[in-house]
Structure prediction request, 285 residues.
Amino acid sequence: MTVKILTDSTSYIDETTKADLDIRTVSLNVEFPDNTFKETNINNEMFYKMMKEKGIPKSSQPSIGDLYDEMEDVVKQGHSLVGIFLSSDMSGTYATAHMTKDMILEKYPDAKIEIMDSRSNCMQLGFAAIEAARAAKENKTLEEVKKVVENNISRSRFLFIPDNLEYLEKGGRIGKANAIIGNLFKIIPILTVEDGVTTVFKKVRKKKKAILAMVEKMLKDIETYGVGEIVVHHINCYHEAEDVVNKIKESVEVDIKIQDIGPVIGLHVGPGAIGIAYYTKEDMR
Prediction:
């Protein structure tokens, strides 16, 4: 029997890759006052239209039922499971996955399940799940797959830029005064995820300069540590993402996918956000 991989929807892995590598996914949810949706069941165009009409929704973790069903389907076939989820400092998904594992073990005491905290989200999480699935396809053991995940996390980074500060302010991530001043002077923060939480990597005036600074940071990492894989993330700004890909390819010859960010993460930064998730060949940390 083999190792199977389970992750959550905030990994934003494209459907083809998930199918090719047999990566299972449980969806987080967005909750408006009168409706709750799995984020996998609502596209960004509809989501941001609803958000303008109804205000900022809450996000919530997958249900124990969804997690249980996915885990049980794996272990009752005799497979082992590695579950890799978004940062435990951002969501209760990781903790709930542990609770679900304990429930599974009550019914299937011989089940082999590892639950892992990616300490991030988006394709920084996604790359960890992808590398794990590749290792599983090579018939690596559960412990070997776990080490692949840990190794990838230490070699990955996620940098992203909001189009403006409106959604960070609405979500309470920055104060109203800071948002007004920032928008007035076109100050754009380059954000990253370190130690499981979102932090400011750098502040730059104007989005175009922020994008260049973000690309320069990635290129510096690649020059120092080698290039693994790169994904350019965006929210409703595909052509801008294409420009970033072309800019990167001026310096690095590598295939680069473009992948949108869904509602659960997107509600904090809003449309027009753009980012780069990547990992290197050598350890960055």
Observations:
- The longest strand covers residues 197-205.
